[in-house]
Write a structure and sequence with these properties.
Layout: H1 23-33, H2 40-43, H3 48-60, H4 64-71, H5 74-80, H6 87-98, H7 104-116, H8 122-137, H9 141-157, H10 163-178, H11 182-201, H12 209-222, H13 226-238, H14 246-262, H15 266-284, H16 291-306, H17 310-328, H18 333-349, H19 357-373, H20 379-397, H21 401-426, H22 431-446, H23 450-468, H24 473-488, H25 493-510, H26 518-531, H27 535-561, H28 574-583
Helix pairs in contact: 1-3, 4-6, 7-8, 7-9, 8-9, 8-10, 9-10, 10-11, 10-12, 12-13, 12-14, 13-14, 14-15, 14-16, 15-16, 16-17, 17-18, 18-19, 18-20, 19-20, 20-21, 20-22, 21-22, 22-23, 22-24, 23-24, 24-25, 24-26, 25-26, 26-27
GO cellular component, one term: Cul2-RING ubiquitin ligase complex
GO molecular function: ubiquitin-like ligase-substrate adaptor activity
TPR repeats: 434-467
């Protein structure tokens, strides 16, 4: 993929680069330089775009103490967030204020709650939606949740049954879901469903079902209840229409793509995420520093990672991270989440090489930011700890005994803490909990605790089969890990043989014959048959491995020749997208 953009873009330099500074710009700068001479009432009568320019000039000339006070004021921010064309600049300006350990975001929340508590005013609810959406976009999720929950509660306490109330409930559900506040999200989900039913009973015809159902899909996705997430994503696609706001269409396509990825319907996922990327690019036009485009890039990278295009995935993750850093710097949840996702992609990419310096760097950066901005037991921090633990285990394998003991100890603590939190948030019968059991099992295998490793892997397989079905990708992954344990350490070769066959069967159902994971299965069987002295079978799988290598080299060559998606390509009308979607076979394998 060709990302030919200047990543050192500096919007502060735009005026300086002009050969001739306009009289208007000189006037704006003069007001900014003498800002303390003016009273707020003098400035609030200015048109919104001029007021914004004054504040941005304060940012440009580094008058941060003044700017911190101004951006903590709800009345001022209520005007600035309406200047949609200047969103990038507002995000940068707000982050600059927050970088100085400022409480602007929390002060805005307090001010909003004070003016709206138990007061039914639709204008205030509209302001709350805009403020909450901005704070979420800016990466201040806790504060966004405070505003949007307040809006939801006002609607609930005043028995407001209309489209505005439904939007308040939906936005609260969304932020609570992506921030893993599951108790609050459970309540919001029930309230959303109840309100939707009331609106339907009253004859309302104009409900945005697509966005509503997509939010339901997000809710279940974040809870790792993937069947329900997939169900609601299909319902959202059924109700998709060009009449919806362009940004909402992108969100719906992205969420549906992720739900299809998890169900391993990768051809359909590719169609959906490509169209989301085209549309997000059209939405932001020449401005690649648009959060909708950047977030869609992250979803595209997620698709690539899960479709065995790991190198391309890393490239897209790196690009998206750089764009986020331009907007938000480093001390921001939006950046830390991207760092965490990149760290995992790098770990997967370098798994066979053993070079984990870069992945460890990004994992530790994500952890530091999460620790600074989140409670100790937050699930986002757990995710970063899991990635670091996986990396430490691999580093330990190539270290001397003294170093490896310490690394294993640290990795075990990280994995155990992650498991405890997963059990608290998700319960036992959840794929996330199963993944943690599997990770601990792999670690115990490296630590030569083989019986304990076996117990963990069997637990992981049982949960995954119960939750996902016997032929799911995740089941195949755990089956392959258990086969490796039996093969290389417990000397249970016949058990290993059966499990390798099962892993191969699952992989070939989902992917093509060039799927990267098949290498471990084929090598495992070669080892099994060598030790069982079955030369015919050993020769058979040696040939299969050679054929796999040829296919893999061909795929790698094609990947280099095809840099990836041309995301500047025009999007298709939704009618054509859905026609293509329905023409695809759900069970089609990938590759």
């Amino acid at each position: 993929m060709d990302f030919d953009y200047d990543l050192d873009y500096n919007p502060n330099a735009e005026i300086k680069n002009c050969k001739q500074v306009s009289l208007y710009n000189q006037a704006v700068k003069a007001v900014a330089e003498n800002f303390v001479c003016y009273e707020r009432k003098d400035l609030k009568n200015l048109p919104g775009h001029i007021l914004f320019d004054v504040y941005y000039s304060l940012h440009s000339i580094k008058k941060m103490s003044v700017l911190r006070v101004e951006l903590s004021n709800l009345e001022i921010m209520s005007r600035l967030i309406h200047e949609v064309a200047m969103r990038r600049e507002l995000l940068r300006m707000f982050q600059a204020v927050m970088d100085h350990k400022n409480t602007a975001a929390s002060e805005l929340v307090r001010s909003f709650i004070l003016i709206n508590y138990n007061k039914l005013d639709e204008n205030i609810l509209t302001l709350g939606l805009k403020l909450g959406n901005f704070l979420e976009e800016a990466g201040w999720f806790s504060e966004a949740e405070g505003v949007l929950r307040s809006c939801r509660n006002i609607c609930k306490e005043n028995n407001l049954v209309n489209m505005l109330s439904l939007e308040c409930h939906c936005r609260a559900l969304h932020i609570q879901s992506i921030f893993y506040l599951f108790e609050a999200a459970d309540e919001s989900y029930k309230l959303c469903v109840d309100l939707m039913n009331k609106l339907e009973s009253s004859g309302v015809q104009s409900m945005n079902y697509a966005a509503l159902y997509s939010n339901f899909s997000v809710y279940y996705y974040c809870k790792s209840e993937y069947d329900m997430s997939f169900h609601w994503s299909l319902k959202a696609l059924e109700n998709l229409s060009e009449r919806l706001p362009r940004g909402v269409i992108v969100d719906i396509l992205c969420q549906a793509a992720k739900a299809h990825v998890i169900k391993r319907q990768l051809p359909k996922a590719e169609l959906l995420i490509q169209q989301a990327l085209y549309r997000s690019r059209e939405l932001c036009k020449e401005h690649i520093y648009h959060t909708k485009f950047i977030n869609t890039l992250l979803d595209y990278a997620f698709f690539l990672l899960n479709s065995d295009a790991v190198k391309r995935s890393v490239s897209v993750y790196q690009f998206a991270l750089k764009l986020k850093q331009v907007l938000f710097g480093h001390e921001n949840l939006q950046v830390a989440i991207a760092e965490d996702e990149l760290a995992y992609a790098l770990y997967v990419n370098e798994y066979s090489s053993g070079r984990f310096t870069e992945s460890k760097y990004h994992a530790e950066k994500a952890i530091r930011t999460f620790q600074n901005l989140l409670p100790d037991n937050h699930l986002l921090l757990t995710s970063a700890h899991r990635v670091k633990a996986l990396i430490l285990e691999e580093i330990a394998l190539d270290s001397n005994e003294q170093v490896s003991v310490q690394l294993y100890k640290e990795a075990e603590l990280l994995h155990q803490n992650a498991l405890v939190l997963s059990l608290q948030h998700f319960g036992e019968n959840n794929v996330q909990t199963a993944k943690h059991y599997g990770n601990i099992g792999r670690l115990y295998q490296s630590m030569q605790k083989y019986e304990e490793a076996e117990k963990m892997q069997l637990k992981a397989i049982a949960i995954k089969e119960k939750v996902l079905g016997k032929d799911d990708y995740e089941v195949g992954l755990s089956v392959g890990h258990l086969a490796s344990l039996y093969n290389y350490h417990m000397l249970e070769y016949h058990k290993a043989e059966k499990l390798y066959y099962r892993s191969i069967d699952i992989n070939l159902k989902l992917f093509s014959a060039s799927y990267s994971g098949l290498e471990y299965d084929y090598r495992g069987l070669i080892h099994v048959y060598e030790l069982l002295d079955n030369m015919d079978r050993m020769s058979e799988y040696t040939n299969k491995l050679s054929e796999w290598k040829i296919l893999r080299e061909t795929n790698d060559l094609n990947d280099r020749e095809m840099s990836g998606i041309d995301y500047a390509k025009p999007s298709l009308p939704l009618s054509q997208v859905m026609e293509k979607y329905h023409s695809m076979t759900s069970g089609a394998k990938w590759g």
